[in-house]
């Protein structure tokens, strides 16, 4: 009797679930195509079911320095065409979830006839700014402004990527945009124009991990007018961008070049990227001015994964370059366009623990006054680190590796001077 009751309950449950089991697969419309390509196709019908209890905003990318903050709206470009009677705007945006999209304008100059993907939509006020509600996807927002005289300024979204301004039918590449999004439309009398100039240095840190990553660090010194430049290629071939950090409005193009809106000053831009697979060689592609004619690459080995010998480019002393301070502990190499840095694999994994084996022969001469010594050290053997520092009590006078004298340098934060070592095996050093 009890078995019959249990059987009846099971049949009723299956009957209730039958419409769900026979329903067509749910389309994961809220998942971006880039994410879908990383998920096996048989699992696609289950995506919405898995994410049904996850709020949409939690599916958006997180900030690199705060994983609790999510960013769902990306304003990729804004075009403003204004004159003395009004004007129109065109705003492109990408959204990873349903969210509010801030528009140009403010309470004084409210956008009219706003269309989202060519459909009229109502404009609401959020935090004193006009905004519309938009779903996930790529959007084109258009609208109009009306006034009797061109205003001195107008508010634009401060997190907009690129801005294209036209006044009275003419392109206006030089404009003043405050950090809070205030765009000045009436310029002060022009001062004598400086000549446009750009001094650019490019440094890259190659990290031999899994995956193989490259950090590209650009130093820019800009003078002249506000303008737009296309730099690069910044992204090396077969690499995927991971993070872009720039104080200037910038966008990474599909061909690997970086589109930047320059303004006078000194700026630093950082791009982190990873390789698509295993890597044994890396070639510096040719680039047009203002890209520098040579680059400095640093190499961060990961001997726990594999031991490689770096070949194909001359080595530099990192302390004698403008490399970022935290990169100067790694070997550095100078590359010209078309040159290839080859990574010759010696071993994979830790086959045998490699220990430093150094032999020291020391000769001491007592000073005539008896207050100190003159010391000559001879070091020979195998070294793992690329730098040797003397104890703070010693004052280095001369260091030679083989028959070549070496530059004596002192790293920031270190009390003792030392030298960079490139010949790690069969070392013969005299100090």
Protein topology:
Elements: H1 2-22, H2 33-36, H3 47-50, E1 62-63, E2 66-70, E3 73-83, E4 86-95, E5 99-102, E6 112-116, E7 119-120, E8 124-126, E9 129-134, E10 137-146, E11 153-155, E12 162-167, E13 170-171, E14 176-177, E15 182-184, E16 197-207, E17 213-223, E18 227-231, E19 239-245, E20 250-252, E21 258-262, E22 265-275, E23 281-283, E24 295-300, E25 306-311, E26 315-316, E27 332-335, E28 340-348, E29 357-366, E30 373-382, E31 387-389, E32 400-401, E33 404-405, E34 418-420, E35 427-430
Report on this structure:
The structure is a single chain. This protein is mainly beta. The protein folds into 4 domains: 53 residues, no CATH class; 112 residues, no CATH class; 152 residues, Sandwich (Immunoglobulin-like), CATH 2.60.40; 74 residues, no CATH class. 7% of the residues lie in helices and 44% in strands. The chain contains 3 helices and 35 strands. The strands form 9 sheets. Strands 7-6-10-4-3-12-13 form a 7-stranded mixed β-sheet, with no helix packed on it. The radius of gyration is 31 Å and the shape is elongated.
Largest sheet: 7 strands, mixed
CATH topology-level name of the largest domain = Immunoglobulin-like
Shape: elongated
The overall strand count is 35
Q: What is the end-to-end distance?
A: 96 Å
Mean pLDDT across the residues is 79
Q: Uncertain segments of ≥5 residues (pLDDT<50)?
A: 1-11, 13-29
Question: In CATH terms, what is the architecture of the largest domain?
Answer: Sandwich
Helical element count? 3
């Amino acid at each position: 009797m009890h078995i019959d009751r249990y059987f009846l309950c099971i049949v009723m449950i299956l009957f209730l679930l039958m419409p769900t089991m026979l329903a067509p697969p749910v389309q994961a419309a809220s998942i971006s195509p880039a994410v879908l390509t990383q998920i096996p196709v048989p699992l696609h019908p289950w995506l919405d079911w898995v994410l049904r209890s996850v709020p949409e905003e939690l599916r958006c990318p997180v900030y690199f320095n705060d994983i609790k903050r999510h960013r769902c709206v990306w304003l990729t470009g804004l075009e403003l065409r204004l004159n003395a009677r009004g004007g129109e705007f065109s705003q492109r945006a990408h959204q990873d979830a349903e969210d509010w999209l801030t528009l140009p304008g403010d309470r004084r100059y409210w956008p009219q006839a706003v269309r989202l993907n060519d459909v009229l939509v109502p404009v609401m006020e959020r935090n004193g700014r006009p905004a519309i509600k938009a779903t996930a996807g790529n959007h084109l927002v258009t609208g109009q402004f009306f006034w009797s005289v061109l205003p001195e300024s107008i508010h634009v979204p401060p997190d907009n990527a690129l801005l294209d301004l036209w006044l009275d039918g003419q392109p206006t590449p030089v404009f003043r945009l405050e950090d809070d999004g205030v765009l000045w439309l009436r310029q002060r009398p022009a001062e004598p124009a400086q000549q446009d100039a750009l001094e650019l240095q490019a440094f890259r840190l190659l990290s031999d991990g899994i995956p193989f990553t490259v950090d590209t660090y650009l130093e820019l010194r800009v003078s002249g007018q506000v303008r737009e430049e296309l730099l690069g290629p910044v992204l090396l071939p077969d690499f995927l961008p991971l993070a872009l950090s720039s104080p200037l409005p910038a966008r990474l193009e599909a061909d690997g070049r970086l589109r930047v809106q320059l303004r006078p000053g000194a700026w630093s831009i950082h791009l982190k990227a990873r390789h698509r697979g295993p890597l044994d060689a890396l070639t510096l592609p040719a680039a047009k001015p203002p890209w520098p004619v040579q680059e400095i690459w640093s190499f961060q080995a990961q001997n726990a994964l594999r031991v490689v010998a770096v070949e194909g480019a001359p080595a530099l002393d990192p302390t004698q370059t403008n490399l970022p301070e935290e990169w100067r502990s790694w070997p550095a190499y100078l590359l010209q366009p078309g040159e290839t840095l080859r990574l010759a694999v010696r071993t994979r994994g830790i086959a045998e623990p490699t220990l430093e084996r150094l032999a020291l022969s020391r000769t001491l001469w007592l000073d005539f006054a008896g207050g100190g010594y003159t010391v000559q050290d001879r070091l020979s053997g195998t070294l793992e680190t690329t730098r040797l520092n003397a104890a703070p009590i010693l004052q280095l006078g001369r260091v030679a590796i083989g028959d070549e004298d070496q530059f004596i340098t002192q790293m920031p934060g270190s009390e003792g001077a030392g030298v960079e070592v490139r010949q790690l095996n069969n070392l013969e050093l005299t100090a």
